[in-house]
Amino acid sequence: MTSDEQLNQVRERINTIDAELLRLICERASCAQDVAKIKDAHGEAVKYYRPEREAEILRRIKLQNPGPLDGEEVARLFREIMSACLALEKPLEIGYLGPAGTFTQAAALKHFGHSVHTQPFGAISDIFREVEAGACDYGVVPVENSTEGVVNHTLDMFMRSPLLIAGEVTLRIHHHLLSTATEIGAIRRVYSHQQSLAQCRGWLDRALPNAERIAVSTNADAAKLAAGDPQAAAVASEAAAELYSLRVMAQRIEDEPGNTTRFLVIGPEDSPPSGHDKTSMLLSCRNEAGALHRLLSPFANQGISMTRIESRPSRQGVWDYVFFVDVSGHRAAPDVAKAITELRGAANLCKVLGSYPEAVL
Amino acid sequence: MTSDEQLNQVRERINTIDAELLRLICERASCAQDVAKIKDAHGEAVKYYRPEREAEILRRIKLQNPGPLDGEEVARLFREIMSACLALEKPLEIGYLGPAGTFTQAAALKHFGHSVHTQPFGAISDIFREVEAGACDYGVVPVENSTEGVVNHTLDMFMRSPLLIAGEVTLRIHHHLLSTATEIGAIRRVYSHQQSLAQCRGWLDRALPNAERIAVSTNADAAKLAAGDPQAAAVASEAAAELYSLRVMAQRIEDEPGNTTRFLVIGPEDSPPSGHDKTSMLLSCRNEAGALHRLLSPFANQGISMTRIESRPSRQGVWDYVFFVDVSGHRAAPDVAKAITELRGAANLCKVLGSYPEAVL
């Protein structure tokens, strides 16, 4: 067979697959409409978006994926298919921390797919307000950045908002070497946040062994300094390169590719159990020796693992500190429920912010 | 059957469909790998991205789509599936006019799907340079905006660049009523570009019959004016609302939902015939009475329809005007080829900028 004949054969096969894919995608959309009709006929309050069911499906897809596409990629395709099917019933309105083009918008689209309508807001408090008022179905806000630490404003909002956490999204963040220099040999100084420098240590040791490393308070500051000094480079994001007209001299120079930023999905309800869930809560106790240790003991007693703890000074004057705690497991699970009951007896404040599926993508 | 039983039945059906979809998507990705292997084995220059083939597939999908999803939505899902399969071989590097979050990035992702790597550049000339140098596989640049007219800088670049047009992308643009006012009754004045006011006339007649309409030079200027006047509103985009902290008082108020912006995909080669193509070219003639009419007669003689013509003053001093002309049909088609041959004899300048599939999505 000539190469053209072989190619035509494969292309015919692709055409057949495409026709079958189209049929199945449309059948899936019809099923989604059937679900809505059944609920409607039984007078149920129709809740189209089911985060726990979507998480289950995505996990199953990743598990069953035979390749050659990687698990993330097939899960992303299924996210888009589910997003399109959901939008048939009612396109979700998603508020996010703007401006457009930020990581938070990327997180919103990663979580809900591209068939939703996203709306940027200028402040985290605006997003809480819009979701509370029902103008948006859900909001997406940043909460944790492994380079810049916790986004405090989001945590503060939870102290006074009735909204719950319905999901989490993680995004991988990459570091690049940015400079105005035309060749890497000209670089004498590298600016960045301490943590970013640490995350790229191996690469910097190899590529720029003699350049001085200077820690500054943010990666954006580093980019600004590099923009004014032809012998300097910054370790920062692509966005910073653009903002300060720097060249990307080397891409993705982080030693471990696991640098992530975390976002939370906020809504009027949290999520039913999906099988792999987290629960977030706000806790507070008086500032006494051993108080925090005692406070957290119900988790240890139930064998529940804590995935994160952050302390924040309380703004309400009554307690000295408020702790944001994430644990593994859903609040409906017996062990988590028991720990929460114990906590409610012991803590000055115990506010469950919601249970939601662990990020799948 | 109870509603729960009915729902479980539909959900089981969805699970079966999902397993089948996963199998087919992965098989499709394997086929894409086979195509690469066959080409490799025959020592062919492997060109993975085939714009004409993608356009054919998307057109077929839209034609065969039985619903309930609309044609745009299924085509978008197939775009993503093709994008993921293509990225298995070699993820495309796409330069676009930044910053991130602009319509041009949206156009790049709409055309290539989300499995490519997009890189923002600050100027249209930078994108041409990076694609010419091979640092990017393709570039995406704005060329036409039905509200703001042609993007002249892009057209000027084509006069001196060897790059060709490999595709076009259109995006629908929506108009919103933006204001600092809390209710619509307070609005006495509406600012916007003349064309945007015209595009929303029906809505403005109904909702704001007594408000004065004031034409200004851009919609961004309108938003700025509205930001400083509590009795004013602007007709502008969501991005303008955000930039000037205006509230979106009414969404998508355009009378016809067909307001689009057009972008071009530039690359080292144009596209082979897909069945529904356009050809863009640069033409010039001396400024004499009837010259343009004579120049264009080969198109008329061959029955070729012209979809756009724009005149630009030439910067090269030799000709008075340069015309950018788009016609229906591929330059490999006999009628277009014949017209081009005739043009080459008659025009001072006849530079074919490329043939490419008409935008499908």
From TrEMBL, chains A, B:
Q: Which UniProt keywords apply?
A: Amino-acid biosynthesis, Aromatic amino acid biosynthesis, Cytoplasm, Isomerase, Lyase, Multifunctional enzyme, Phenylalanine biosynthesis
Annotated GO biological process: chorismate metabolic process; L-phenylalanine biosynthetic process
Which InterPro entries does the UniProt entry name for this protein?
A: ACT-like_dom_sf, ACT_dom, Chor_mutase/pphenate_deHydtase, Chorismate_II_sf, CM_dom_sf, CM_II_prokaryot, G/b/e-P-prot_chorismate_mutase, Preph_deHydtase
Q: Which domain of life is it from?
A: Bacteria
Catalyzed reactions per annotation: chorismate = prephenate; prephenate + H(+) = 3-phenylpyruvate + CO2 + H2O
Query: What Pfam families does this protein map onto?
Result: ACT, CM_2, PDT
Q: Name where it's found.
A: Cytoplasm
Q: Which Gene Ontology molecular-function terms are recorded?
A: chorismate mutase activity; prephenate dehydratase activity
Domain Prephenate dehydratase residues, every copy: 93-268
Q: In which pathway does it act?
A: Metabolic intermediate biosynthesis; prephenate biosynthesis; prephenate from chorismate: step 1/1; Amino-acid biosynthesis; L-phenylalanine biosynthesis; phenylpyruvate from prephenate: step 1/1
Function in brief: Catalyzes the Claisen rearrangement of chorismate to prephenate and the decarboxylation/dehydration of prephenate to phenylpyruvate.
The name of this protein is Bifunctional chorismate mutase/prephenate dehydratase
Source organism (scientific name): Halochromatium glycolicum
The record lists the lineage as: Bacteria, Pseudomonadati, Pseudomonadota, Gammaproteobacteria, Chromatiales
Gene name as annotated: pheA
